[in-house]
Amino acid sequence: MLLAEVALDRRRFLSASLVTSAVALTHETSAQAAAAPAREYYQLRRYLLQSGPQNGLTEHYIGDALIPALSRRSMGPVGAFRLDIGPETPAYYVLIPSHSVEELVTLDLALGKDAEFLKAAEPFWNAPATAPAFMRTESTLLAAFAGWSRVTPPPMAAGTKRVYQLRTYESPSYGDHVRKVEMFHAGEFDIFKAAGFHNVFFGDTLIGARMPSLTYMLSFNDLAELNAHWAAFSGNPDWKKLSADPKYAYESIVSNITNLILSPLPSSQI
Q1: Taking Cα atoms as reference points, which of 110, 112, 42, 124 lies closest to residue 73?
Q2: pTM for this one?
Q3: What is the pLDDT of residues 153-176, one digit of tens each?
Q4: Quick one: how far is CA 119 from the chain centroid?
């Protein structure tokens, strides 16, 4: 009888210990989640234009209608850029951050119910087929990297005009894509910092063309600084070591790179 009581007490003690451990682990995990910054999502829009009136019409739409409407919805900072060097110019790019995927994918429907937006957007929003405001638009949905969870605008000194570099890496397989994203977290972020880059955002493509892919943006004072920082990056011993790791062999995990040079529109918040 005594042995049975001892066994019962032991089972009760073990059950209580497991419950206590589970509660402690739950609290610890919840605290870690609360402490971690919320990851953003991005809609990256590209407006393909034809030289002529479409440029001014689209720029006014972005600056006078779209960005103010996004600000009223507490979405921002919003980046607005002109493509300076890259294929298919003229083109404008708009980067829209949000903590909600649903907010991004239903954005145009919501804007269509915003009377203030519709009034400001009228020439662009309802341009006739005989004089369209743009040729085509394309949108990509991205999720911020865990290690760079938010848009980081560069410091903006009065009277300065910065240069932005938008780079997209395509991978031959999803496994290779996952390894390339992992490579940034395995040391590449630190190498960017050591080389003097200003990182704006890093995003994993959720919906878009030419997947699997990732896109990120860097900012510089000018093209001379861009070239100098990339030279410092490629010569960094930590980069040489990281890129020599067979797991991250660059030629096998990145099959194509798109490299664009942008300048900010006057309305850009980035």
Answers
A1: 110
A2: 0.84
A3: 998 755 568 999 999 999 999 999
A4: 30
Q: What is the pLDDT of residues 177-225, one digit of tens each?
A: 999 999 999 999 999 999 999 999 999 999 999 999 999 999 999 999 9
Q: Can you tell me the distance from the alpha carbon of 106 to that of 110, in angstroms, rounded to the nearest whole number?
A: 6
Rounded to the nearest 10°, the torsion over CA 6, 8, 11, 13 is: -70
Cβ contacts of residue 42 below 8 Å, gap of 6+?
Answer: 95, 96, 97, 98, 104, 141, 142, 143, 144, 151, 201, 203
The architecture in CATH of the region 41-264 reads 2-Layer Sandwich (3.30)
Rounded Cα gap, residues 145 and 152, in angstroms? 13
> 136 has which bridge partners?
48
The residue behind tokens 């660059």 is 250
**Whole-angstrom Cα distance, residue 40 to residue 37?**
9
Going from N- to C-terminal start, the domains of the chain cover 41-264
Tens digits of residue pLDDT in 30-76: 444 445 568 999 999 999 999 999 999 999 999 999 999 999 999 99
Strand partners, 168: 215, 258
What is the identity of the amino acid at 139?
S
